[in-house]
């Protein structure tokens, strides 16, 4: 990722923590909630890996191809679940847009892919400005609507028999999604 090293570290930690929490959510979830938590964990860890400051670790050329393939697979997975429709359609559409945005960033950040040859100081901005702008607008809207849904959510107790920290915690899951939306916005800004 381009930009100041401190912001890269902060994004890396934020996305890593969100990914770890999503991974922990898979333990208490079933069915669709478990699939969503797995997808969000993969997105969080992938975003954390991409946010490592270039001054600390300069990724090799093949790293960007691996990111593109992994997030391309996540986009195909989201498409697979979209085909069935259902009440989680909006969530799968968001995963599709997020995964495709990660593929786009991986391609734009690859040496020769968008002008970021080796993360050099003289590297020009990568990506297609119109597409970057559309993705920024989407993520800004997503963050604002997610924040709006988070405010009125009252804390609820988990299902009977759930231990501490287990059970349904929709406000924490929404906060993780909000965090990753903000991080995606910040990563797109550095593109």
Would you give an account of this structure?
The protein has six helices and no strands. It is an all-alpha fold. The chain has one domain (about 5-190). The longest helix is centred in the N-terminal third of the chain and has 24 residues, at about 5-30. It is globular and about 40 Å long. It starts with a helix and ends with a helix.
Attribute tags:
6 helices, 191 residues, 68% helix, mainly alpha, single chain
Task: Please render the helix and strand layout as text.
Blueprint: H1 5-28, H2 31-50, H3 61-82, H4 89-109, H5 129-150, H6 170-190
Summarize the structure.
The protein has six helices and no strands. By secondary structure, the protein is mainly α.
List SSEs in N-to-C order: HHHHHH
In DSSP terms (H or I, runs of 4 or more residues), the helix count works out at 6
Computed over alpha carbons, the radius of gyration is 17 Å
What proportion of the residues form beta strands (DSSP E)?
under 5%
Number of structurally distinct domains? 1
- Outline, from the CA principal axes? globular
């Amino acid at each position: 990722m381009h930009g100041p090293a401190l912001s890269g570290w902060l994004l890396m930690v934020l996305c890593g923590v969100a990914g770890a929490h999503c991974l922990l959510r898979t333990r208490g979830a079933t069915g669709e909630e478990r699939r969503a938590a797995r997808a969000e964990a993969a997105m969080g860890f992938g975003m954390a890996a991409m946010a490592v400051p270039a001054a600390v670790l300069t990724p090799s050329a093949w790293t960007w191809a691996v990111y593109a393939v992994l997030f391309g697979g996540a986009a195909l997975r989201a498409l697979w679940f979209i085909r069935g429709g259902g009440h989680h359609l909006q969530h799968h559409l968001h995963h599709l847009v997020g995964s495709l945005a990660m593929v786009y960033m991986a391609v734009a950040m690859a040496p020769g892919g968008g002008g970021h040859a080796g993360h050099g100081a003289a590297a020009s901005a990568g990506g297609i400005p119109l597409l970057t702008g559309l993705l920024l607008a989407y993520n800004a809207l997503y963050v604002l609507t997610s924040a709006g849904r988070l405010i009125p959510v009252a804390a609820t107790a988990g299902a009977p028999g759930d231990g501490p920290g287990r059970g349904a915690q929709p406000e924490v899951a929404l906060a993780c999604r909000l965090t990753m939306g903000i991080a995606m916005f910040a990563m797109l800004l550095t593109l």
